[in-house]
Amino acid sequence: MITPQEIKNKTERKYISFLQSLVENKPFEKLVIRGDKSYTKSSLQEFEKEIQQIVSQSKEKKGFGYTLEFQKVKTKSLGVQDLPTSIFFDTEKDFLKFLGKEKEVELFKINVEKIINAFPELKEWIFKNPMKVIANQTEWKSILKVCEYFKQNPKPNLYVRELPIKVHTKFVERNKTVIRELIDLLISEHINIEEKEFEKRFNLKFAEPQIRFKFLDKEISQNFFSGIDDIAIPVSQFEKLNLPVRKVLVVENKTTLYTTLTLPTMDKTIAIFGSGYSVYNLKNVHWFDNLELLYWGDIDVQGFEILSQFRGYFPQTKSVLMDKQTFDKFFEEDKGTSTNISTKLNLTNEEQQLYDILKTNNWRLEQEKIPFDYVNEFFLKMKMSQHF
């Protein structure tokens, strides 16, 4: 026989459809809970215990909640007994008080009215997302202020915290998820639909990632930057640089960037701090297209995955100091970080073989652990062989 907890679980599953009926202004209809007509056949005592349990939580006993209808049924094992043939909620009050949702629904109704009065076009969104209305139940006054601003100013060209909206300065940042859904609907013709970042999508200013780079050719740093050789500028400015550079060395770690100045002089060359997967920020640097590009990362699975990522932007990229000889010479039994990537990577045969070894054993050799003299000798030989 159905238990009070099972009745509660089934009732809770009807809550969302109830909320949707409120959005559509439908009157409450008798809400039936399907029960289990089986019962314990072992003894009359067990049967009566089951009946007592469900009656104890019913409207008859508590003054609210579900109503039970009984019917006399002749059973094979226990003779003629009163069995519950129907479980239902007569009124909205019974339903909500049983679930403990009276105050929540009262506020839901107020917020639904508030949202639809401000933006009738959001009614369908409310119908599809009643629990999101509830999840943000204390914030709707401010959320609607933000929506109203974007409706009137679809291309603000301001930073989020500059927006002249009478809400907390961090409010938009803290509530981006729901605000994004609403603004997508309200100003669909003005959004940058291909952009996923909030600021880019809704025509806001944003703090750009910066590209940090070092000149390994003193003449270029002197002629263009008054001798300054360590620079960080926003991505959009880096994309517009016009320098007499022929080679670019991208290094994964910041410490390695510092050591690049100890390398043999490299004509018309710059070194860039790739910052791991942040090499993504370089994907639109089109002046790289015809340059010689070198990538130097950790000898671990992530290092090769980042190399593959960067090579996806610039196919001419070659790896340096990421070979098995270097790994075997300096590996110190360090463990790496496992990977979930299973797609084919953009690696050479030799790189792929080493990647497979690293992945299987979860090994790592960080580039900082390769001695300076070995690194310098490597680049000196490269320069002497006219590859640099």
TrEMBL record:
<protein>
    <recommendedName>
        <fullName>Wadjet protein JetD C-terminal domain-containing protein</fullName>
    </recommendedName>
</protein>
<dbReference type="InterPro" id="IPR024534">
    <property type="entry name" value="JetD_C"/>
</dbReference>
<dbReference type="InterPro" id="IPR024537">
    <property type="entry name" value="DUF3322"/>
</dbReference>
<dbReference type="Pfam" id="PF11795">
    <property type="entry name" value="DUF3322"/>
</dbReference>
<feature type="domain" description="DUF3322">
    <location>
        <begin position="4"/>
        <end position="184"/>
    </location>
</feature>
<dbReference type="Pfam" id="PF09983">
    <property type="entry name" value="JetD_C"/>
</dbReference>
<feature type="domain" description="Wadjet protein JetD C-terminal">
    <location>
        <begin position="207"/>
        <end position="377"/>
    </location>
</feature>
<dbReference type="InterPro" id="IPR014544">
    <property type="entry name" value="UCP028408"/>
</dbReference>
